[in-house]
Structures are given as structure tokens and as C-alpha cells.
Amino acid sequence: MQARVPAGLDRKETEIYRQLDPERLPRHIAIIMDGNGRWAKRRHMPRVAGHRAGVAAVRSTVETAARIGVGALTLYAFSEENWKKRPKSEVDFLMRLLSRYLKAEVPTLNENNIRLEYIGRQHELPEDVQERMAWARQSTAHNTGTVLTLALNYSARSELVDAFRSMANAASQNGGFEHLRIDEDTVGRHLYTSHLPDPDLVVRTSGEMRLSNFLLWQLAYAEIYVTPTLWPDFRGLHLLEAVAEYQKRERRYGGLNGDARGRLGDGLGKADK
Ligand code: FPP
Q1: 151 pairs with which residues across the strands?
Q2: Which atom of ligand 1 is nearest to the CA of 102?
Q3: What residue's CA is closest to ligand 1, atom 5?
Q4: From the CA of 152, how far away is ligand 1's center (Å)?
Q5: φ, ψ for residue 74, nearest 5 deg
Q6: Could you write out the DSSP letters of every residue in 232-251?
Q7: HSE-up of 204 (CA within 13 Å, CB side)?
Q8: Which among 39, 87, 193, 268 could bridge 272 via Cys, Cβ 3.0 to 4.6 Å?
Q9: Element (H, E) at 64
Q10: Does ligand 1 have an atom closer than 6 angstroms to the CB of 55?
Q11: What DSSP assignment string belongs to 111-151?
């Protein structure tokens, strides 16, 4: 029996959705949104026009993810490096764009049952932006569907540094370092993403083959999908294509797949087993 198509998907999205197994959706998709500048350059427009066009891509991607029931979507909107290395005018523009996006989008996030979260060093962002962020998070806190996490002023290495500091602080308040036990779960609980499962799929637009300091711990076993599409051209349809590709892959987590195990088994004599 064919799975029921979620409401709100357009004709092309429906076509791809029908090829998917709804039982095997990635629980968490992370996206490195890249190519806004190149999109603008190709049109002889200023870079900021690419960022402005990128908002429509965010809207479409977020809505499609929520419609098909992806549990978590994390968008790399603004890295710590962006903040330090781009001209002030571009950074100011991105801050205004984010503020406007948050104000305009809260009703749609609520209609789609999406809860908003953030990762990154928020305290270093302008105060008015922090206030808007807190307001938007608060306004969607009751939602129980997709968790949309925006990475803002984010760096994976800074996140790890903050996690180590946080573990050291916790130890000094709980009997000192001789009681400190560190394992992978402990580290996970001290990361910014403690509210999320690790991503199953990471998408990068604009054809670049880098992780760019994004979720370095959490992406350990993620499937990587790179598309040449520039971020402002990316839509829900492209997200579904990425999910279709993800479902074709076989995930092994460092183990052996069924076939390989079978072949290996055949080759072993009883004494070897
Ligand atoms: C990368 O393109 C994109 C960014 C640094 C900013 C991302 C911002 C948006 C998509 C718009 C707003 C987002 C939200 C959440 C409201 P680039 O400038 O590095 O492109 P290039 O590599 O082609 O120069």
C-alpha cells in the first residue's frame, strides 16, 4: 500500500515523496547553506541580495521538512568565522535579516507546529537580536513537531571548548575532579545540541566538499549529501531529493553489512569462528 502523501506538498514534491519510505526518514537533517554570494554575483547583484533570496529557501525547506515529519532540522545560518571575517555592512545586514525573519515567521512556525531553538555563542550577538531570538523561541516553545535549530555565531570547535569548560565547572561543583567520569554520553549532554539526536544526514549546497567547522562531533556517522544547487535556489523539493539519496545508502556505523558478513562467514573455517 502506498503511503499517504502529507498535505501541502506540491506536484513535484509529491512525486518524490511517493518514492520514499516514510518509516526511514532521517530523524535529524543538518544543512550547510552556502552559495548566496555566488547566486548574487551571477546576477550582477550585491551579495546581500543573495542572502535576501536565501530566506525563501529557508522558508520552503523548513515547511517541507515539517510536512513530511522530519523530527529535527538544523540550519547553519551564521558561523563564528562569518562574524569575524565579513565586512561590517554585510554582518549588519544578516542581523537585520534574521530579526525580520524571526518576526515574520513565528505565525507560520506555529501553524506548522515547529519549535525554534538556537546553537552558538548567542551572548556575543547584538542585544536587540538576542531579544528577538528569545521572543521567537518563547513563542514557539509549546510546539511538539519539528525542532528547527538555527546555528548562529556557531563554531564546532568553540562548542567543544564550551563543553569541556562546562564539564569542568560541573565537576568542581559536584565534589571535584576525582569524581569526574567522562564518556561519550557525558560529552553529548554538555554540547549545545543536547536537545537533539545526532544528524543522520548533512546537506551542503553550492558544491563545496567541506564541513566548515559545523557539528564536528555530532556528524561522526552522518551521510553527506552535496548538491551543486546554490542556497537561494534550494527548495523543499531538493530536500526530498536529498532524503531519497539518503535512503539509497547503506549505513554501517563502522560494522559490516549483511552481505559482507555473509561473505566473510563463508570464507572462515570452523576453527576461525
Ligand atoms: C552562505 O553564503 C550563507 C550565509 C553566510 C548566510 C546564510 C543566511 C541565509 C540563508 C539567509 C537568512 C537566514 C535565516 C535563518 C533567516 P555565502 O555568502 O558564503 O555564499 P558564497 O560562498 O557564494 O559567497
Answers
A1: 76, 119
A2: 16
A3: 78
A4: 11
A5: -120, 125
A6: GG--HHHHHHHHHHHHHS--
A7: 15
A8: 268
A9: helix 47-68
A10: yes
A11: HTTPEEEEES-GGGS-HHHHHHHHHHHHHHTT--S-EEEEE
51 lines ligand 1 (CB under 6 A): yes
The whole-angstrom separation of Cα 113 and Cα 96 is: 25
Closest-CA residue to 233 (of 46, 30, 39, 63): 39
> Which residue has a Cα nearest atom 10 of ligand 1?
54
Q: Could you give the CA distance from residue 38 to residue 57 in angstroms, rounded to a whole number?
A: 15
Q: What confidence tens digit (pLDDT) does each residue in 71-102 have?
A: 999 999 999 998 788 999 999 999 999 999 99
Rounded distance between C-alpha atoms, residue 2 and residue 13, angstroms: 15
CB of 38 shorter than 6 A to ligand 1: yes
- Active-site residue numbers? 34, 82
pLDDT digits (tens, 9 = 90+) for 180-238: 889 999 999 999 999 999 999 999 999 999 999 999 999 999 999 999 999 999 999 99
Measured at the CA of 48, the angle between CA 137 and CA 73, to 5 degrees, comes to 35
Closest CA to 55 of 105, 15, 128: 105
Closest residue by CA, ligand 1 atom 1 = 34
Q: How far is the CA of 78 from the centre of ligand 1 (A)?
A: 7
Domain boundaries, the chain: 24-155+198-252
28 pLDDT band, cuts 50/70/90, is: very high
DSSP letter assigned to residue 79:
E
Length of the chain as a residue count: 273
| Best residue for ligand 1 mutational test, from 31, 32, 33 (most atoms within 8 Å of Cβ) | 33
CATH superfamily, domain 24-155+198-252, is: Decaprenyl diphosphate synthase-like (3.40.1180.10)
